[in-house]
Amino acid sequence: MRKDVLERAVLRALHGKELHGYAIQRELTSAGFNVEVGNLYRVLRSMEVQGQVRSRWSESHRGPRKRVYAVGPEGRRQQEIMLRDAIFTILQEYADYLTAHVAPQTEDLEGTIVVVTSPFFDPVRQTVLRRISSRLVRGRLYLVKPPQVAFESDHRKVTVLDGSHLHIPIQDGTATGVIFNDIPSGPEMEKALDEATRVLDPEGWLSIATLFPTRPSEDPAPLTVYLFRLMATLFGNIPSVDPEELERHLRERFRSVHRVTLADESIFNAWDLRVRPPPPPVQEPRRPVRPPATRPK
User: Fold this and answer.
1) Annotation: CATH topology of 3-71
2) Which of 18-22, 101-105, 125-129 comes out lowest in average pLDDT?
3) How far apart are alpha carbons 149 and 170 in whole angstroms?
4) Count of beta carbons in the 10 Å neighbourhood of residue 133
5) In the predicted model, is pLDDT for residue 105 greater than 60?
6) Domain positions in the chain
């Protein structure tokens, strides 16, 4: 067994507790590792030198004292790295899931694709953006983000613009597809949908990935729910909407609407636009009124 693999297994066995050598061996055996005691103690001594574990003598009323081990400062740092790596792996898998259900189910995308994000532009949605841009064989991808969101793209086909769900700086009827990362709730939901249909080509499509509130009867413990709460802690509040209300508004604007649900996330894909919202009335500038000419006396 590789030494680094055994070290990580020891840190997992010691998480939040003190154990003596034989107890560590039992924990490793129960986790599927076959480790000789002599090899384990050599690894423990090496880890203690590195600061990954610390040890002390523990007195026992039933026999001789025993050396017990606990996680040291360097070990706690390694545990944090292990946790981040595990979360990153799960989030990457989740990003693959979102990418598979957002936008048309074709290998290649063409045309003008507009991705609109809220301030909650987490690593998952950034990864989805990169995956979608890699599928774009012809055309351009625009990321519309709030001004306070800092993001620079290294992809030559991606243009970053400041805007919002209520203001997409794209010309009318020019977008092949629009992707909403989240969507405002309440009265602003309809305004955002109207803005999306404004920029869409009549044969274009709209995808929306949004959270909806967990119902009281649902199990609050699934891993995806935990990850959403963790990401909310790291990146701020996540906008959530009523999925039934959103689907109703989509069906008012599109003839075809498809919905996929995973834990607290709903993905809506809509196409076949019914009607385009009327443009806001344009007020003609008033001509200045010239004062009547006066005859000289």
Assistant:
1) Arc Repressor Mutant, subunit A (1.10.10)
2) 101-105
3) 19
4) 20
5) yes
6) 3-71, 87-273
